[in-house]
Amino acid sequence: MGFGRYVATRVLLVLPTLFGVTLITFTLTYLLPGNPALVKAGPLATPEHIQEMERRMGLDRPVPVQYWRYLSGVLRGDFGESATTGRPVLDDFLQRVPATLELTLASMLIAIALGIPLGVVAAVRRDGPVDHASRLLGVGGVAMPTFWTGLLAVYFFFYQLGVAPPPLGRLSPGVTAPTALTGLHTIDALLTGNGRALASALHQLMLPALTLGFSVMAPVTRMVRATMLEILESDYIKAAWAAGLPRRTIVYGDALRNCMIPVITLIGVVFGFLMAGNVVVEIVFAWPGIGNYAVTSLLTKDAAPIQGFVLFVAAVYVLINLTVDLVYSVVDPRIRLR
Amino acid sequence: MTPLLEVRGLRVEFDTDEGTVGAVDAIDLTVRRGEILGLVGESGSGKSVTALAVFRLIRPPGRIAGGSICFDGRELLALPEEEMRRIRGAQIAMVFQSPRTALNPVLPVGRQIARLYRLHQGCTAAEARRRTLEMLGLVGIPEPERRAGQYAHQLSGGMCQRVMIAMALATSPRLLLADEPTTGLDVSIAAQILDLLRDLGRRTGASIVLITHDLGVVAGLCDRVAVMHAGQLVECADVRTLFREPAHPYTRALVRSIPRVDREVAMEPVPGVVPSLLEAPPGCRYADRCPDVLDVCRTVRPALSAMAPGHEVACYATEAARVAAPRG
Amino acid sequence: MRRNSLSLAALGAILAIILLALAAPLVAPYDPDAPQAADALQTPSWRHWLGTDIYGRDQLSRIVWAARVDLLVALAATAMALTTGCVVGALAGYRGGLVDQVVMRVVDTIMAFPAFILAMGITAAAGNATANVVVAIAITHVPIYARLIRSEMLRVREMEYAEAARTVGNRQRRIIFYHLLPNCFPPVIVQATLAMGFAILTVAALSFIGLGIQPPQSEWGAMTAEGAGYIVSGEWWLFLFPGLAIMVTVLAFNLVGDTLRDLLDPRMRGVA
């Protein structure tokens, strides 16, 4: 199978999945108890008024028709309207996505930059102190609820030690946001040379990113360690030793190179964990991202933002996994040239 | 002239939760210059472990528990790791059992050979590449230029084994250990690979230790044979003697188990199973399977002793029969 | 050896937590819902081991009572997911064809969502009731078992005892559920133990963000959320102990699950 054809097949396979995803979010939005027309019409509406509202919203139509309207809406970028902000959900999203993106990327960077070396060293020096630490992290880290880790961090670093700022958003009070280029405050501040904003943004980002990074570091370390151990026991590594290659070449050349390929698939898994962790971390640190937006909408029983959020996250998740698969097929010669 | 490799009293043990496994139990083994020695035994008899021990590549929970390995007059077990590393690949090389998994899956095979030239002989990249292609041609790989750029999974099993051999011989080692080099290969391919090994051995003057469970292969290829059973070396002789006059009961059973068309007696498998090596009792480990077992076999291990010049056996029963024979 | 004593300790911890939860009315020193204005916001002491909240409710008693909710929800969700997953997975694996296609497409679709996000969406849509939380978590866990059982089924259905069961003329349902399914159980039990830990984390996180179990019902995640508000005033015990309860429980289930996997996974057995 040629590479082009592989890509095409893989991309086509995503379509039914995305279709299924919209089917589920549609079910969540329309078929479960709670009449959106009732909510929209307000508490003082008369039955006639509600009926009128239902007709306007298309709720009296057959379910497939409703689904079609929903799907075509979604494809046009219409995720409904937030009852709280009175704005289209998509607009609210776009405004908040950079905050979530900044947090997610920073956490991923932390998890990967610390988790991969830790897993590698743990495997190479099996049963050494680093290995014991990594196993402790492996079992302990995954058992800690992310929101609790965040609260612990706030308690120690903000309340006790005073080295972290209060957990209240992306910038300290009084600091103006840097000129928006990417929407990521740290990057924007760097690009515009805004030192004050950069310091403040990094300071604010520190604890939430560490919290979230820590929560996904455990699975990363665990998987890297297991993969690396398996590789170090493999025949070709034995052959490399027998060929007299230096230890450094074997461990950090041959073994690590082979280890990085399955680790790429980790990115997809990590992203799933990050999406879940994002929601609670954004709450703990009052981070103005889409997770925070969705939860705030929950408290006001505002359905459209939540369902839009679920759909949005799932779509991103599917696309990330698709990208991971494609990247995987590029870097692994066994798939590429089959 | 001293032998190329002289192993004395080598013991390799593995520590497990249940106790110590004596995988190699004080074996003596000599490899002469330029010869092909067959090291035979059932699986689990410690052949491959012995080979890895020569490379000093026994990893925890295993360890070399005693003995000496003398290569070309140098005691390998006493060398600093860095010097040992310079010997591996350069002077002692290994051909592994399953060629496909013994090649790095994400490096083109040519690069895997070329880097050995650069490492062990200090070649430039261009020189290494030139010699790689030459070596690939030498081991009988057609279109070396194209093959060099390919990955292990794109080559057939026989082709992979040729690459492995090219890798092992790249730096003209003086000792080549080939661990079941034909496992999983088609019979005709296997024969080609064995011929290739013999030719290259002759051409370079390297000694070869052929590790196998297949006596048929040994008969066709080797000069001398050493037989291992459950981590112990039980008999060592030149190939003719071993097949004509196998002395140890285990060797006799092995020879009887070779399928042969020219013989009327049916082939018999070796009776019994390889005993557990976990906390093995002293004495001969073949005792429980042996038809000629004596009481002493279970308590004191028989030493390897010369029956005839160049024919050594470790067995009390054989010894007793030999001593008794002239009288009776 | 040390590994085993750790797993035994974890197993002991699970049993102790379950016992505490069952015996909550007997062992909890105070009524978890009774406000005691005079005792408000007390630091941990001999009278109140884990302190009290703003209403003077005893934190230890609330955590013990909350164990009932968290364990019950996680257990019910796991049981529901396990039953559903096993049935559909077995059918898909044994029957193949269209049934298999449909089941696997549904499973793939569920797995296209990050589990917590889907659970969040379902609970948000279905409303805050404990039963809804159970169903939401169960739905996100079904794929684990369905896929596992399906692949196990594909493996065992070709084996001799399946052939033997067919030859003697058993009905298909009986073959699947009586003869084949039990052979798939070991990996399922391992998964279920590990999934318990995950389910507890999910219940807690849902309650933390205000979904699912509602106050005044005690629940570890909700209690942590209440406690979060007191960090800046220094009442650390309010967020610390409920979170610790979650961590210890999840840790115990994970340790036992890991050990079971090592015991039941034949590839790990008897490595010399």
Briefly characterize the structure:
Chain B has 328 residues and is α/β, with parallel strands linked by helices. Chain B is 35% helix and 23% strand. At the A-C interface, helix 1, helix 6, helix 7, helix 11 and helix 12 of A face helix 4, helix 5, helix 9, helix 10 and helix 11 of C.
Please tell me about this protein's structure.
The complex is a heterotrimer of chains A (338), B (328) and C (272). Helices cover 77% and strands 0% of the residues of chain A. Chain A is mainly α and 338 residues long. Helices cover 35% and strands 23% of the residues of chain B. Chain B has helices at residues 47-54, 81-87, 99-102, 109-121, 125-138, 144-148, 157-169, 187-204, 215-221, 239-244, 249-256, 316-327; strands spanning 5-16, 19-31, 36-40, 62-71, 74-75, 92-95, 175-179, 207-212, 224-229, 232-238, 305-308, 311-313. An 8-stranded mixed sheet of chain B has the order 6-7-8-3-9-10-12-11, sandwiched between helices. A 4-stranded antiparallel sheet of chain B has the order 2-1-4-5. In chain B, a hairpin with a 2-residue loop joins β9 (224-229) and β10. The longest helix of chain B has 18 residues, at 187-204. Chain B is globular and about 65 Å long. In chain C, α6 packs antiparallel against α9 (185-208). The longest helix of chain C has 37 residues, at 59-95. The radius of gyration of chain C is 22 Å and the shape is elongated. Chains in contact: A-B, A-C, B-C. Chains B and C meet through loops of B and loops of C.
Show the helix and strand layout:
The complex is a heterotrimer of chains A (338), B (328) and C (272).
Chain A: H1 3-31, H2 36-41, H3 47-57, H4 63-75, H5 89-124, H6 129-143, H7 146-160, H8 185-192, H9 195-232, H10 235-242, H11 247-284, H12 290-299, H13 303-331, H14 333-336
Helix pairs in contact in A: 1-13, 5-6, 5-9, 5-11, 6-9, 7-9, 7-11, 8-9, 9-11, 11-12, 11-13, 12-13
Chain B: E1 5-16, E2 19-31, E3 36-40, H1 47-54, E4 62-71, E5 74-75, H2 81-87, E6 92-95, H3 99-102, H4 109-121, H5 125-138, H6 144-148, H7 157-169, E7 175-179, H8 187-204, E8 207-212, H9 215-221, E9 224-229, E10 232-238, H10 239-244, H11 249-256, E11 305-308, E12 311-313, H12 316-327
Parallel strand pairs in B: 3-8, 3-9, 6-7, 7-8
Antiparallel strand pairs in B: 1-2, 1-4, 4-5, 9-10, 10-12, 11-12
Helix pairs in contact in B: 4-5, 5-7, 7-8
Chain C: H1 2-22, H2 24-27, H3 59-95, H4 97-111, H5 115-126, H6 130-156, H7 160-167, H8 172-180, H9 185-208, H10 220-228, H11 237-264
Helix pairs in contact in C: 1-3, 1-11, 3-4, 3-6, 3-9, 3-11, 4-6, 5-6, 6-9, 7-8, 9-10, 9-11, 10-11
